[in-house]
């Protein structure tokens, strides 16, 4: 099955597939919100929502309905048109990315053979990246158009964050393209089905073995970098600085309410699903069955693969929740340093290593082979060797008196009463009790 | 998938550019790692070394005629000559850029991004200037070199950006009069970005017409294409706007006086000499290679532009009261003369190249002398301040007078021989109208130059006549080179004329 | 290869837009409307909203710097993608060329790093 399998569906089938994806995304989001609250609850030793429906399953539905019936506020200072358009942009981009996510192989739907994927194009991965890139517009415009400080700050942070991690994300999939030779999602999944034999000649001994085709194993560094940057890309904890509720109230959507807010919320959760699905597609074999199941010959045919696919996606969703439940939020400078100073150079060196190894396997000449591999190893070694160390924390000479070294008054400071307090006191009759401590207490107030 | 043709690369032909680009990259690493105190010395030697090595490579390549990297680069006689001219003019203008005696810390500030007159801006007044100017200059020069030998329009666009972007930045780095310098940078950047957009749009339309972006391909495609001729005309017009902007032809000249005035004078000199050479190198190549066969269509339009440029440039030069603006308008008028060479096509390629060298050296010398006239505020560029300088500084005034006479086209200077060569070859190519307008306008243009001369010698000194500073060897060398070449090319132009004649026509196959 | 592969994508895009447009448009009609001046002001945790200068406020130059760096690396990615896809047919030539390209970008990257362009305060 290649790219030729796409673009022949009758129109009714296209509509069915699209509606299915639509329903899937909305139901998943509702389920995810419940799931997140339950799991985080467990992690924090509390039950989480458990009132509506079995295990509180209907809680999110109730919340969604309530949200729709809330008052829709348009702030006075808002830029009306942009404020209105921003959530639409977010949603548009979030949904469109799902057009190219492969759910499964070719099946028969009402007598028509068709792949379980809305469509596929030669640049499918770019479509997903473009959607995530355009989605930032929704956030930035929403924050900017609100005419308020917190949303603006949140939007700026969000833009800086998303573009910083988009570089790392984009670089981490270069190695995947190199191995699969394609940017179409279905072909990338197909290429992970083969188990490439690896030949190593060490000291005259020939070692032959097969490795599983999942790129997560072949390209482990890429996989790890993708995982990290996809959390940064979706503004989730520990990288949730744009929405840091303790700093910015709600970030870019502070001024949004009712269904407009719901749109942002929905888009955010769909984006989580999108990056998880991309990760599964690019690195974990997509809809291919994981190892013990794959022994069963029929595992990768028919409708079963949807199950494997969803299972893998939900593992990632659990990881998202897990991260939120355990990790504290990064400081902004730490966060940017991780993106720009660690992930990007690491990525580039890794790409060169992969390219070097791959180009050397093509070479007939043994000397060139050794030269290329040796050069690449040297390069990687040099980068690791010369990677600047973090500055050692130097113990300050004087003891920190709290507040991170800022000058702090001593704990037993006597504050003299302000002139205004003195004047008030002078005109006021003295209370009969507690006169001794009175100077102190009023002094603190002033 | 497997039918990708790998282009053949002739590294020898690319060597001059690779050397200069490489030196620029090394310069950036020096900026990153060398200790602050060492940077200036390392950068100056690296830059001069890189440029000289590039020049040597060009001289070694002198007889090369080849199209390489899949047609992206065409190395031929005029291309190599232009590359050599740009490198030599670049080396000379480097003397001004590296000058550090006239002003503490050099003519540049450390950080251009400080708002003018802010606290940060005041603080950096006494700090040494940015040494990034050297890699930036190298990038600009390398970009210009590529611009002159690009074999297709896309390479040309890349080269255009490579040499423009560093120049935008350099314009904003002047140590004195920060606000006007930043204004110049912004103006140049915005208008330059517009021009680039025009250029690119033109490339797109021409691609639609001819089905290729390579210059020789367009030459062929022009004859065979079945597309509407409007595509060709519009594409050519937009492309020409992009190029004429860099060449400062009327009506795309409006940035010139402001930018020339606001930019640090060494950068102005670099722009006046090297950018002009690169822009006309590009114009000559595009029109001679790609559009020679359609000359009937565009020659009248370009001739009109040339006439406008000559007339407007020379008339507006008369009204100027600032020496840098005066030189800017004179550069506009000179662009007009060079356009006469472009319109004359192959007949005038050699004399255009000669003109570029002659004009480049004179203008470098003139701007070098402008940097010397100073008061406590920096350079005193207003003409009224120059009155009577001849009394106190006769040598300075004599040399400047000589350069002014050179610009005015008095015999025994390069100004005369270059104009003579250009106009006579244009006359031979039947551009008699243009030649007549050119001669008349150069008569008009002589007036402002002579006005400066009169001002220097005959007017009484004002109350606060600025002093003529004593520069280091670098600026002296620049002035010497400018004056000497102006004189030598005026007396014995034949050896350079032989070289440009040997360079032959552009390679159009 | 045909454009018909793109049709479902366009349909999905249109449906998603309609869905969002519908939701955002009906929101004011299904919710209550109780006018209160304070509600319409910018929310700043109850204090008087900070007045912003007309035309928006200025924000730190760091954000611009990040945006410019992003463009540089995004362009690099743009070059890397087609190279990666066609890697096998480009062979040694492609490898060496890309090595040179990445090294060149690394030069600029090192400069930015050393000059503190990647530090956030």
TrEMBL record, chain A:
<comment type="similarity">
    <text>Belongs to the complex I subunit 1 family.</text>
</comment>
<keyword id="KW-1278">Translocase</keyword>
<keyword id="KW-0520">NAD</keyword>
<keyword id="KW-0830">Ubiquinone</keyword>
<keyword id="KW-1003">Cell membrane</keyword>
<feature type="transmembrane region" description="Helical">
    <location>
        <begin position="81"/>
        <end position="101"/>
    </location>
</feature>
<dbReference type="GO" id="GO:0016655">
    <property type="term" value="F:oxidoreductase activity, acting on NAD(P)H, quinone or similar compound as acceptor"/>
</dbReference>
<feature type="transmembrane region" description="Helical">
    <location>
        <begin position="162"/>
        <end position="181"/>
    </location>
</feature>
<feature type="transmembrane region" description="Helical">
    <location>
        <begin position="12"/>
        <end position="35"/>
    </location>
</feature>
<dbReference type="InterPro" id="IPR001694">
    <property type="entry name" value="NADH_UbQ_OxRdtase_su1/FPO"/>
</dbReference>
<dbReference type="Pfam" id="PF00146">
    <property type="entry name" value="NADHdh"/>
</dbReference>
<feature type="transmembrane region" description="Helical">
    <location>
        <begin position="335"/>
        <end position="357"/>
    </location>
</feature>
<dbReference type="GO" id="GO:0048038">
    <property type="term" value="F:quinone binding"/>
</dbReference>
<keyword id="KW-0812">Transmembrane</keyword>
<comment type="subunit">
    <text>NDH-1 is composed of 14 different subunits. Subunits NuoA, H, J, K, L, M, N constitute the membrane sector of the complex.</text>
</comment>
UniProtKB/TrEMBL annotation, chain B:
<dbReference type="GO" id="GO:0048038">
    <property type="term" value="F:quinone binding"/>
</dbReference>
<feature type="domain" description="NADH:quinone oxidoreductase/Mrp antiporter transmembrane">
    <location>
        <begin position="150"/>
        <end position="443"/>
    </location>
</feature>
<feature type="transmembrane region" description="Helical">
    <location>
        <begin position="12"/>
        <end position="33"/>
    </location>
</feature>
<keyword id="KW-1133">Transmembrane helix</keyword>
<keyword id="KW-0472">Membrane</keyword>
<comment type="function">
    <text>NDH-1 shuttles electrons from NADH, via FMN and iron-sulfur (Fe-S) centers, to quinones in the respiratory chain. The immediate electron acceptor for the enzyme in this species is believed to be a menaquinone. Couples the redox reaction to proton translocation (for every two electrons transferred, four hydrogen ions are translocated across the cytoplasmic membrane), and thus conserves the redox energy in a proton gradient.</text>
</comment>
<dbReference type="InterPro" id="IPR010096">
    <property type="entry name" value="NADH-Q_OxRdtase_suN/2"/>
</dbReference>
<protein>
    <recommendedName>
        <fullName>NADH-quinone oxidoreductase subunit N</fullName>
        <ecNumber>7.1.1.-</ecNumber>
    </recommendedName>
</protein>
<keyword id="KW-1278">Translocase</keyword>
<keyword id="KW-0812">Transmembrane</keyword>
<feature type="transmembrane region" description="Helical">
    <location>
        <begin position="129"/>
        <end position="147"/>
    </location>
</feature>
<dbReference type="InterPro" id="IPR001750">
    <property type="entry name" value="ND/Mrp_TM"/>
</dbReference>
<keyword id="KW-0520">NAD</keyword>
<feature type="transmembrane region" description="Helical">
    <location>
        <begin position="267"/>
        <end position="287"/>
    </location>
</feature>
<keyword id="KW-0874">Quinone</keyword>
UniProtKB/TrEMBL annotation, chain C:
<keyword id="KW-1278">Translocase</keyword>
<keyword id="KW-0472">Membrane</keyword>
<feature type="transmembrane region" description="Helical">
    <location>
        <begin position="63"/>
        <end position="84"/>
    </location>
</feature>
<dbReference type="GO" id="GO:0030964">
    <property type="term" value="C:NADH dehydrogenase complex"/>
</dbReference>
<keyword id="KW-0813">Transport</keyword>
<keyword id="KW-1003">Cell membrane</keyword>
<feature type="transmembrane region" description="Helical">
    <location>
        <begin position="90"/>
        <end position="112"/>
    </location>
</feature>
<dbReference type="GO" id="GO:0005886">
    <property type="term" value="C:plasma membrane"/>
</dbReference>
<keyword id="KW-0874">Quinone</keyword>
<dbReference type="GO" id="GO:0008137">
    <property type="term" value="F:NADH dehydrogenase (ubiquinone) activity"/>
</dbReference>
<dbReference type="InterPro" id="IPR023043">
    <property type="entry name" value="NAD(P)H_OxRDtase_bac/plastid"/>
</dbReference>
<keyword id="KW-0520">NAD</keyword>
<comment type="subunit">
    <text>NDH-1 is composed of 14 different subunits. Subunits NuoA, H, J, K, L, M, N constitute the membrane sector of the complex.</text>
</comment>
<dbReference type="GO" id="GO:0048038">
    <property type="term" value="F:quinone binding"/>
</dbReference>
<comment type="function">
    <text>NDH-1 shuttles electrons from NADH, via FMN and iron-sulfur (Fe-S) centers, to quinones in the respiratory chain. The immediate electron acceptor for the enzyme in this species is believed to be a menaquinone. Couples the redox reaction to proton translocation (for every two electrons transferred, four hydrogen ions are translocated across the cytoplasmic membrane), and thus conserves the redox energy in a proton gradient.</text>
</comment>
């Amino acid at each position: 099955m290649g790219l030729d399998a796409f673009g022949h569906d009758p129109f009714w089938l296209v509509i069915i597939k699209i509606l299915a994806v639509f329903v899937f995304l909305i139901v998943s989001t509702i389920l995810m919100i419940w799931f997140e609250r339950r799991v985080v609850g467990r992690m924090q030793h509390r039950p989480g929502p458990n009132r509506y429906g079995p295990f509180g399953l209907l809680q999110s539905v109730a919340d969604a309905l309530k949200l729709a019936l809330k008052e829709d506020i348009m702030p006075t200072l808002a830029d009306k048109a942009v404020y209105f358009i921003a959530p639409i942009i977010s949603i548009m981009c979030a949904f469109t990315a799902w057009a190219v996510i492969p759910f499964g192989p070719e099946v028969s739907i009402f007598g028509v053979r068709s792949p379980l994927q809305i469509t596929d194009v030669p640049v499918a991965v770019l479509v997903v990246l473009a959607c995530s890139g355009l989605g930032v517009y929704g956030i930035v415009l929403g924050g900017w158009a609100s005419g308020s400080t917190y949303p603006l700050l949140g939007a700026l942070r969000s833009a800086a964050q998303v573009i910083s991690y988009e570089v790392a994300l984009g670089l981490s999939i270069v190695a995947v393209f190199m191995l699969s030779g394609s940017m179409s999602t279905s072909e990338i999944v197909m290429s992970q089905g083969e188990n490439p034999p690896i030949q190593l000649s060490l000291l005259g001994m020939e070692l032959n073995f097969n490795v599983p085709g999942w790129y997560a194993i072949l390209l482990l560094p890429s996989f790890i970098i993708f995982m990290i940057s996809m959390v940064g890309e979706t503004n989730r904890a520990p990288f949730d600085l744009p929405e840091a509720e303790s700093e910015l109230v709600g970030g870019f959507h502070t001024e949004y309410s009712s269904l407009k807010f719901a749109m942002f919320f929905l888009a955010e959760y769909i984006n989580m699903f999108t990056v998880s699905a991309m990760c599964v597609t690019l690195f974990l074999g997509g809809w291919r069955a994981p190892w013990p199941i794959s022994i069963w010959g029929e595992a990768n045919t028919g409708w079963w693969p949807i199950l494997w696919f969803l299972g893998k996606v939900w593992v990632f969703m659990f990881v998202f929740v897990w991260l939120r439940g355990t990790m504290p939020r990064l400081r902004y400078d730490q966060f940017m340093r991780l993106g720009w100073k660690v992930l990007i150079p690491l990525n580039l060196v890794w790409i060169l290593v992969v390219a070097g190894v791959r180009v050397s396997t093509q070479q007939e000449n043994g000397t060139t082979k050794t030269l290329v591999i040796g050069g690449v190893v040297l390069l990687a070694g040099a980068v690791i060797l010369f990677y600047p160390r973090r500055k050692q924390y130097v113990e300050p000479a004087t003891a920190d008196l709290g507040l991170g070294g800022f000058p702090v008054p001593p704990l037993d400071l006597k504050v003299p009463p302000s002139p205004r307090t003195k004047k008030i006191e002078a005109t006021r009759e003295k209370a009969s009790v507690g006169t001794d401590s009175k100077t102190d207490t009023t002094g603190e107030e002033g | 998938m497997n039918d990708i043709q790998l282009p053949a690369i002739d590294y020898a032909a690319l060597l001059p550019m690779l050397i200069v680009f490489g030196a620029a990259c090394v310069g950036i690493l020096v900026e990153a790692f060398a200790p602050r105190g060492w940077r200036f010395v390392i950068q100056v030697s690296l830059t001069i070394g890189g440029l000289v090595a590039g020049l040597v490579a060009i001289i070694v390549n002198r007889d090369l005629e080849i199209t390489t990297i899949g047609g992206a680069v065409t190395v031929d006689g005029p291309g190599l000559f232009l590359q050599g001219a740009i490198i030599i003019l670049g080396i000379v203008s480097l003397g001004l850029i590296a000058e550090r005696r006239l002003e503490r810390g050099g003519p540049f500030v450390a950080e251009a991004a400080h708002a003018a007159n802010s606290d940060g801006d005041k603080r950096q007044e006494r700090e040494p200037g940015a040494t990034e100017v050297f890699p930036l200059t190298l990038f600009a020069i390398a970009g210009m070199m590529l611009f002159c030998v690009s074999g297709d329009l896309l390479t040309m666009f890349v080269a255009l950006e490579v040499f423009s972007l560093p120049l935008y930045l350099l314009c904003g780095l002047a140590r004195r009069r920060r606000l006007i310098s930043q204004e110049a940078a912004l103006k140049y950047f915005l208008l330059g970005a517009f021009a680039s957009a025009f250029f690119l749009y033109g490339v797109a339309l021409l691609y639609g017409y001819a089905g290729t972006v390579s210059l020789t391909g367009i030459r062929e495609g022009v004859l065979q294409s079945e597309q509407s001729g409007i595509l060709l005309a519009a594409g050519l017009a937009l492309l020409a706007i992009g190029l004429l902007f860099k060449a400062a032809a009327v009506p795309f000249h409006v940035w010139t006086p402001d930018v020339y005035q606001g930019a640090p004078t060494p950068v102005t000199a670099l722009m006046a000499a090297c950018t002009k050479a690169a822009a006309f190198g590009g114009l000559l190549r595009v029109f001679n290679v790609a559009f020679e066969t359609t000359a009937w269509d565009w020659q009248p339009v370009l001739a009109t532009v040339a006439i406008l440029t000559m007339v407007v440039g020379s008339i507006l030069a008369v009204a100027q009261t600032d020496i840098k603006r005066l030189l800017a308008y004179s550069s506009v008028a000179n662009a007009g003369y060079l356009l006469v060479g472009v319109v004359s096509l192959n007949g005038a390629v050699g004399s255009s190249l000669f003109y570029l060298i002659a004009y480049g050296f004179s203008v470098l010398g003139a701007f070098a002398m402008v940097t010397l006239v100073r008061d406590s505020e920096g350079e005193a560029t207003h003409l009224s301040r120059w009155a009577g300088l001849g009394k106190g500084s006769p040598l300075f005034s004599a040399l400047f007078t000589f350069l002014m006479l050179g610009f005015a086209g008095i015999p025994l200077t390069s100004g005369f021989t270059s104009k003579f060569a250009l106009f006579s070859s244009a006359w031979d190519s039947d551009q008699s109208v243009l030649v007549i307008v050119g001669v008349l306008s150069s008569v008009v243009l002589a007036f402002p130059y002579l006005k400066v001369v009169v001002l220097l010698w005959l007017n009484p000194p004002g109350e606060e006549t600025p002093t003529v500073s004593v520069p280091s060897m670098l600026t002296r060398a620049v002035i010497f080179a400018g004056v000497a070449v102006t004189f030598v090319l005026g007396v014995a132009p034949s050896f350079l004329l032989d070289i440009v004649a040997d360079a032959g026509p552009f390679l159009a196959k | 290869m045909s454009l018909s592969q793109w049709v479902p994508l366009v349909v999905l895009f249109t449906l998603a837009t309609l869905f969002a447009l519908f939701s955002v448009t009906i929101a004011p009609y299904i919710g209550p409307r109780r006018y209160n001046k304070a509600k319409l002001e910018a929310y700043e945790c109850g204090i008087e909203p900070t007045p912003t200068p007309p035309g928006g406020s200025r924000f730190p130059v760091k954000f611009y710097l990040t945006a410019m760096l992003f463009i540089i690396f995004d362009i690099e990615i743009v070059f890397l993608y087609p190279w990666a896809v066609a890697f096998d047919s480009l062979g040694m030539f492609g490898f060496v060329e890309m090595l040179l390209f990445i090294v060149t970008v690394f030069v600029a990257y090192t400069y930015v790093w050393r000059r503190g362009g990647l530090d956030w305060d």
